[in-house]
Amino acid sequence: MPFSARTRRSRILIAAVTTVAAALAVALTLVLTVTTYDHTSPRAARAEASGSVAGTDCRKAKCVALSFDGGPSPTTPELLDILKQDGLHATFFVQGEGHIAKYPAILRRIAAEGHEIGDHTWTHPRLTDLAEADARRELTRTQDAIERITGKKPVLMRPPEGRTNRKVAKICRELGLAQVLWSVTAKDYETTDSALITQRVLDQTHRDGIILLHDLHKGTVPAVPGIIKALEQRGYTIVTVSQLLAPAEPQPGMVYRP
């Protein structure tokens, strides 16, 4: 074979090997990105569990979980009034600085009225950007404050912005916290239009979903009565996150995402 042909063939082989290696590297990166923590859906968690359920059984009912982030805030009592009037319970992922620290009486009311309370960190940082010790401190400080005020330590947390990874999962596993993401967001932090917030929720809601709202934003609480009414008209039963998972128990470190 002429030298030029051999050279050309070698270059082709080298190029092919390089392309395959690059593709494998990308695939490996994607695999590592996707599988850096354990995750499951509420439906899958229920399917793997057995036993009876006290109250609403979401294996049979058309359930959706209602959750609120970032409180407690001055607007929270009005929201609690609405939920109480409708006989509903929600999950509140509360924040420490400017919220728990400032409104402990509202947090006590949330607990006293039977709502579920989760940890949303102390200062709302991206936990994935922090050193392990700092991320742990964000969660433990909030956990301890919740327990001190309500008498009960939370077993659920929601990572700010939904940012989690293997490090965050490890910390949560050690602290006894299950991670809860969502399937419905109204992006109520960018609008005060209650009608728009309502429509965004209704457009995205499906069975076994988890709705994320923020009770501290101006347009959110006024939207809640309409959201509740429309969901119930569509046959949904509104529950807490733990009710959505039952009879499964929240597993520390696990990420629950619909």
Structure description:
- Helices cover 47% and strands 13% of the residues.
- The chain is α/β, with parallel strands linked by helices.
- The radius of gyration is 23 Å and the shape is globular.
- Mean pLDDT is 90; it is low at 15-35.
Give a brief outline of the structure.
The N and C termini lie far apart (60 Å). The chain is globular and about 45 Å long.
What is the rounded Rg? Answer: 23 Å
How much of the sequence lies in strands comes to 5-15%
Distance between the termini: 60 Å
Q: Structural class of the helix and strand makeup?
A: alpha/beta
Unreliable stretches: 15-35
Q: Helix and strand succession? A: HEHEHEHHEHEHEEHEHEHE
Number of strands: 10
Measured as a percent range, the helix fraction is 40-55%
Global morphology: globular
The mean pLDDT is 90
Q: What kind of assembly state do the chains in view correspond to?
A: single chain
- Put simply, the count of helices is 10
Main sheet properties: 6 strands, parallel
Question: What key attributes describe this structure?
Answer:
258 residues; 10 strands; globular
What does the secondary structure layout of this molecule look like, with pairings?
Elements: H1 3-34, E1 39-40, H2 42-47, E2 63-69, H3 76-86, E3 91-94, H4 96-100, H5 104-112, E4 116-119, H6 132-150, E5 156-157, H7 166-175, E6 178-180, E7 184-185, H8 194-204, E8 209-213, H9 220-233, E9 237-239, H10 241-245, E10 255-256
Parallel strand pairs: 1-10, 2-3, 2-8, 2-9, 3-4, 5-6, 6-10, 7-8
Helix pairs in contact: 3-9, 6-7, 8-9
